[in-house]
Amino acid sequence: MSELTNLSAYDFHLPENQIAQFPQFPRDRSRLLVVHRANGRIEHRSFQDLPEYLDANDLLIANNTRVMKARLPGVRILSKEGEPRELGGKIEMLLLERPSAEDLARLGAHAGDGYAYWQGIFNSAARQLAGFRFGIPRGNGDYLEGELVRGAKESPNGTVIARFREDPVTAGVGELPLPHYIKSKAESDERSYQTVYAKELGSAAAPTAGLHFTEDVLAAVKARGACWEEVTLHVGLGTFRPVKTEDIRGHHMHEERYAVSTATADALTRHRAAGGRVLAIGTTSVRTLESIYDGDAKAYRAGESATSIFIYPGGREIRAVDRLLTNFHLPKSTLLMLVSAFGGRDLMLRAYAEAVEKGYRFFSYGDAMLIL
Alpha helices of the chain — where are they, by DSSP H? Predict the structure, then answer.
């Protein structure tokens, strides 16, 4: 195991008071730390200054996923189906994605059988076995009932599959899945935890690098002559699952669904062929582009699929992206490893140390970094 594949090589000290608890308002007043890879120079700017670094050679790629109300807080149902309902201890489910047809078939189920099926993470003091029943309050004294059809121990990644008589997303019983370290939930989170260009509903977390954009910044980007394209990657377990192996090569990413249109893939291929730069907005955009890029043909391929790509220093080289806009990430996270693969671990950790020293705000509601 080399230094670059050692988990402890991606640790850093972060004072708790620099973990952002509230969104910046207006969004584009966040700070922007600019890192020049060519010479190691670091600048301290405002996110409003981003367009100054762009011109007609830049094509920006944004992840237009929209965050679902994926957190389902509820209670256990103790009685059997058909008997008077008794309510037990608290539970919580985080919806991640719809199960594949293959997973449903293994459970003797299929889409269209009258249930809505969801795969997710389940928290309960009781054992999470198939047949476990629970209820999510509707707000009118009633509950949307769910049942586990696959328990956590029956899954290789610890997720469960639950079925509902009504889809919990469209039923409106869930909450936005704000990160656990955000202690105060405000009404503004309904708007601030979505990007201004969010369109495709399906994420369990926001693509946070995009949260800084306002309509004014988008207009300024386009006024500089830069191009704008969008892809979709629904953020799930793959993005925020912690690394538990000391040798990071032993970590396995959970698959996340993505979609790239033919028009976007062709625009990327033409832009790169003409000598242009691709600027990825966020690590999810990087993972999507790396998953569709054909390095031999120097072309981006359209399609809908799932990716479990894991990018880290010394592993797969980043070839589909020339510039990166990102937030500041958790110590020892796959996101920090991806950023280190792009910018170099030593330079990124030096930039992080300077960000800590200068009082930058970290994580989902935190400040931004532009790596050139």
Answer: 101-106, 168-171, 189-192, 215-223, 237-240, 262-273, 283-292, 334-343, 345-357
Quickly tell me which residue has 């730390």 as its tokens: 33
Q: Is residue 37 part of a domain?
A: yes
For residue 127, give its domain range: 71-171
Secondary structure (DSSP) of 59-97: EEEEE-EEE---EEEEEEE-SPTTSPP-EEEEEEEEEEE
Nearest Cα neighbor of 287 from 205, 331, 231 is 231
pLDDT band with cut points at 50, 70 and 90 for residue 187 = low
The per-residue pLDDT for 188 is: 61
Query: Are 206 and 320 contained in the same domain?
Result: yes
3-state secondary structure of 249: helix
Give the separation between CA 359 and CA 126, rounded to whole angstroms: 42
Q: Which of 226, 202, 259 is nearest to 213 (CA)?
A: 226
224 & 94 share domain: no
How many angstroms separate the CA atoms of 179 and 172, rounded?
Answer: 20
Q: What is the pLDDT of residue 117?
A: 97
Tell me the per-residue pLDDT of 24-75, one tens digit each, with 9 for 90 and over.
Answer: 999 999 999 999 999 999 999 999 999 999 999 999 999 999 999 999 999 9
> How does pLDDT run across 83-101, given as a tens digit for each residue?
778 888 999 999 999 998 9
Asked if 239 and 253 count as a contact pair (C-beta separation under 8 A), the reply is: no
**Which residues have a Cβ under 8 Å from the Cβ of 208 and sit 6 or more positions away?**
282, 327, 363, 364, 365, 366
Give the residue, 324 or 316, on which the prediction is more confident. 324
pLDDT per position as a tens digit, 133-161: 999 999 888 999 999 999 988 887 889 99
| Number of domains forming the structure of the chain | 2
Where residue 216 sits, what CATH number does that domain have? 3.40.1780.10
Q: Over the range 218-232, which residues count as b (16 or more CB within 10 Å of their CB) and which as e?
A: bebbeeeebbbbbbb
Where a domain ends, among 171, 204, 222?
A: 171
For residue 30, count other CB atoms closer than 10 A to its CB: 22
Contact 298, 278 (CB under 8 A): no
